[in-house]
Amino acid sequence: MYLIELQELVKSYGTVKALNGLSLKVPNGCLYGLLGPNGSGKTTTLRILCTLLAPDAGQVKVAGLDVVKDPRSVRRQLGYVAQEVAIDKILTGLELLQLQGDLYHLPSNERDIRIAELIERLDMKAWITRRCGSYSGGMRRRLDLASGLLHQPKLLVLDEPTVGLDIESRSAIWQLLFELKSQGTTILLSSHYLEEVEALADQMAIIDEGRVIAQGAPDDLKKQLGGDRVTLRVREFSDENESEQVRKLLANVDGVRQVVVNRAQGFSLNLVVDDENVLPRLREELDRSKLQVFALSHSRPSLDDVYLQATGRTLMDAELSASGNRDVKLESKQAMR
Amino acid sequence: MTSSDYVAFDYSDKKKGGADLRQETFALTRRLFIQLVRRPSTLVAGVLQPLIWLVLFGALFSKAPDSLLPGGISYGRFLGAGVIVFTAFSGALNAGLPVMFDREFGFLNRLLVAPLSSRSSIIFASVIYITSISLLQSIAIMGTAFFLGYGWPGFAGLLLVLLTLLLLVFAVTALSLGLAFALPGHIELIAVIFVVNLPLLFASTALAPISYMPAWLGWLAAVNPLTFAIEPIRAAYGGTLDLGLVILHAPYGDVTGYGCLSILIALSLGLFLLISPLLNRKLA
Ligand SMILES: Nc1ncnc2c1ncn2[C@@H]1O[C@H](COP(=O)(O)OP(=O)(O)OP(=O)(O)O)[C@@H](O)[C@H]1O
Ligand SMILES: [Mg+2]
Hints:
Bound molecules: adenosine-5'-triphosphate, magnesium ion
Number of domains of chain B: 1
CATH superfamily of the largest domain in chain A: P-loop containing nucleotide triphosphate hydrolases
Largest sheet of chain B: 2 strands, antiparallel
Strand order of the largest sheet of chain B: 1-2
Structural class of chain B: mainly alpha
Largest interface: A-B, 45 and 43 residues
Strand content of chain B: under 5%
Distance between the termini of chain A: 34 Å
CATH class of the largest domain in chain A: Alpha Beta
Number of domains of chain A: 2
Distance between the termini of chain B: 35 Å
Shape of chain A: elongated
Shape of chain B: elongated
Helix content of chain A: 25-40%
Oligomer: heterodimer
Helix content of chain B: over 70%
Order of helices and strands of chain B: HHHHHHHHHHHEEH
């Protein structure tokens, strides 16, 4: 039984195609990770799911209900923790939670019990009666989590919940998410941290340029990929030309399936090889061309490799190229209602 | 949190639309008042500006002969009604600002993901809030005018004054909320408020009667909504509570008290009807 079903979603902002036929299904009770580089369409997907945005085409169902036709019953079931935290700086955290409770129509005594529980659980007692304007990033995140959880939603949607947080806050949030899952809450979270999705998610989808390019359990995705990974540098700082030459050279070695140049990491080379027996052959080939081996590492496939395989570039490369051509101010302006 | 917390409440299928609407409207209104109490400068400025008008303009013309104005009243008494209306008007003109800031800072999104029983509650909260503070500001001005010796309309007169102000405030609030959703940002909204504010005051009967104005300005004043609020209030201050009497001699004909109030009612309804498709689209 799927709690969320997204089918062939299409969404454009002017000429920018943010979603381009995105489909995915999230089973009930699952912690589902949405992994993708900046600008791949994660936030757009989540905003459509949360009824904040209407898709240009495609279907959105939550618990069998059509989100576009019946947004109100979906809103009831759903807690949303947005990427950009919107708080009212003049209110205290407590007042904000009370407001939130009233917007979800909790009876006032139950609302206050819930708020007390969440203050306890998220350790907010020391500052919850202070004005939100004085909160740190971590405090805001916790407050936002609390407001998302106040009405005990069946489905919790989190957009990059730990971005910019210290390790301690991050692991506290992970802990909470595990707990919620064990209590039966379905969780959909987006992230561009590989480790986060790897550590948390039962199921995941990798999205790129508005489409799902791979989905499944993280372990299965890695297994399906097969082959071993090799990262290689011929000197500490290579340039693009040299790396490109080496790439051509190694591509023909027996047992090498794929070689790409990783720009994000100083033009190092990422290889997919059949197994570790290929390593000596790589060294021989480099020797013949009077090239040295500055560094070489060898590992089983990771999620980054899954991404690399599907898109032909590493997640970090995708981030680098995406962050250059976005106008964040303009986007937030256009996201206004 | 223990696991039992998660089965404790189920709110999903309660049928209580009216109570829900009241709860969410009350909560949203409460938020606006908390903001006001913690940041009272707009409230204070909203009283100070008309107060300065009242004192300075009253003083400017204090030596004018009593026969200057129709009915032989002092300029201070004449001015009082205008300044009271101006207070309520400029207060209501600001109604859209909090909404605009919520749009810009994304707080509106927080409201829009919630299962509000009606999104009109966002509008109701603004109307309740702005109506109460502009009436409050107007009453403060009325009190000051009384102490300056510019008169007091009596109890029945006070009710008429408040009713008139209420109608004007509704109309202006509708306009301002419409602008808050139609304009791209708070800079534009503030610019419009700034540009509209004073000309509407000058092109009304707040500072001088129509008979003193050149014909073109007289026409402007005679179609200016502020005038239809000022004249019933001025009449009430003059002791005339009979709405059947003619209180405005406009170039196009005479207007009674009932006439003035009907125009204000029509204006409020018209403006709310005009902006509702816009609100429906933005809050859908
Ligand atoms: N309001 C907007 N107006 C115009 N373009 C937008 C808007 N929001 C997003 N975009 C564009 O749509 C694409 C998808 O953006 P989206 O915010 O969904 O990505 P994301 O995966 O959430 O990225 P990030 O990791 O940076 O949060 C990007 O190319 C982005 O530039
Ligand atoms: Mg995003």
